[in-house]
Amino acid sequence: MRMSISQEFEQAYGVESGALRTFVAPGRVNLIGEHIDYNGGLVMPAAITLGITATCRLRSDRMVRLRSTGDRLAVNIDLDQPIEPQQTRGWGNYPAGVLRELLCQNVKVPGADVLFTSTLPQGAGLSSSAAMEVLTAFSFLSLANSPEIDLKAIALLSQKVENQFVGVNCGIMDQFAVALGRENRAMVLDCESLEYRYVPFALKDHVLVIMDTSWQRRLADSKYNERRAECDAVLQLLGPDAPRDGLVHASWQQVLSHVSDPILLRRARHVISEQARVEQATRVLASGDLVAFGQLLTASHVSLRDDYEVTGPHLDAIVSAALQAPGCLGARMTGAGFGGCAIAIVDQKATADFSDSVRTTYLAATNLEPAFYVTHAADGVHELAPGT
Ligand code: GLA
Q1: What's the CATH number for 206-375?
Q2: Ligand 1 touching residue 112 (CB < 6 A)
Q3: CATH class for domain 5-202+378-383?
Q4: pTM for this one?
Q5: Which of 195, 174, 152, 236 is nearest to 34 (CA)?
Q6: Is residue 33 in contact with ligand 1, taking CB distance under 6 Å?
Q7: What average pLDDT does the segment 252-273 reach?
Q8: Closest to 27 measured CA to CA, from 372, 348, 335
Q9: CA end-to-end span of the chain, whole Å?
Q10: Residue 29: beta bridge partners?
């Protein structure tokens, strides 16, 4: 029989007095609006039902001990010593960076033992790193009895850790979705102003299926930075005509009159067309037109494949398998690309046939066994009631 969280915690840290508190942060999918958060665009992510929990018990000293049920790494952090990134610390660098940032912001971070458990596949593009960061910030602010926890500030702090401590130059979308996601809602986030709203995302007789290619996003970080640099290069070429609030606000005519390099033209075409697709997606979702929504997802994938070139053979194979499978209204890669996961909107009644069909086609094409998760939009980071 599976152990309860408190039994697992006691196995890791021993039985002592002191209450256990458990916090949870979800992963996220991006429904549409890919590679435009760092171009000042609109994105439409949703938090998902897969996530990470942190079970915590306060200590009386200044040590933070971190363990995970998923592997044997043990990370100990002395809050009175400088906290620097360390290669040997592995996933522990995410919480370590957050603790450092909280200390810099004069939060009275308490010593604690923490046990992480996860249902979120790592390196699959479902934002396990953002979940870890947001979870650590929320847990320690709660343990420190911070009077008001500002989720937007947590998202920004977590992005800063990812950019400066972990060294990945990501945008703000993932941390925002993980912090502020809502059950049965997708978030429409303006990544320039950071204003956001929610649109209904309860699919009635359809479901959101996450398809994991089982191909890790190996190239993602280097190509990610390359794409960001290409977008900056387009802005440079636009000169005084460059929009101040990001490349998504340039017009295609402007781009055509300043840019001749075919690669840069394609990058800019993705950015501008993707923004338009997000705007359309919010309209068709509001009117409940899932067929049109599915078509926009598929069009987004084509643009990411042909113009932005961030899909790669595995994501292309799984999306193409999904589009041929029963009950599928549309499919696309989600996240940074080059591996990881894709999503599909699927008729609920056809879910099993859909997965069987995608598995067979994808396995034949790649020799890799995919994984499927049927999910729906979930709440962002929060504390679990005791005993759950
Ligand atoms: C990664 C980054 C996000 C975003 C997506 C692409 O997930 O962390 O900020 O740029 O890629 O849309």
Answers
A1: 3.30.70.890
A2: no
A3: alpha beta
A4: 0.96
A5: 174
A6: no
A7: 98
A8: 335
A9: 17
A10: 46
Which two three-digit tokens encode residue 285? Answer: 């979702």
CA 335 to ligand 1 centroid distance, Å = 5
* pLDDT of amino acid 92: 97
Known catalytic residue at 245: no
For the Cβ of 189 lying below 6 angstroms from any atom of ligand 1, the answer is no
Q: What pLDDT is stored for residue 1 in this prediction?
A: 65
Cα 171 to averaged position of ligand 1 atoms, centre (Å):
6
Structure tokens at 341: 């996961």
Output the residue whose Cα is nearest ligand 1's atom 1: 336
Beta bridge partners of 150: none
63: left (phi over 0), alpha (psi -120 to 50) or beta: beta
Residue ranges of domains in the chain:
5-202+378-383, 206-375
Task: For the beta carbon of residue 149, count every other beta carbon within 10 angstroms.
Answer: 15
Confidence band for 279, pLDDT divided at 50, 70 and 90: very high
**Chain-centroid distance, C-alpha 48:** 10
In short, whether 307's Cβ falls inside 6 Å of ligand 1 is: no
Q: How far is CA 328 from the centre of its chain?
A: 23
Mean pLDDT of 183-199: 97
What is the Cα–Cα distance from 53 to 7, expressed in whole angstroms?
15
Q: Which residues, in sequence order, are CB contacts of 265 under 8 Å at separation 6+?
A: 255, 256, 259
Reduce the DSSP state of residue 317 to 3 states and report it. Answer: helix
Element (H, E) at 138: helix 128-143
> How far does the centroid of ligand 1 lie from the alpha carbon of residue 204, in Å?
28
Quickly list DSSP for 328-354.
EEEEEE-SS-SSSEEEEEEEGGGHHHH
Residue among 275, 288, 290, 287 at smallest CA distance from 346: 290
Q: Which two tokens stand for residue 139?
A: 């847990």
Ligand 1 centre to CA of 365 (Å) is 27
Please work out whether the CB of residue 217 comes within 6 Å of at least one atom of ligand 1.
no
Rounded Cα distance, 345 and 102, in Å: 39
CA nearest to 187, candidates 340, 332, 29: 29
Residues recorded for the chain? 388
Average pLDDT over residues 250-259: 97
Nearest to 133 by CA among 52, 33, 211, 32: 52
Range 81-97 average pLDDT:
96
Average pLDDT, integer, range 217-233: 87
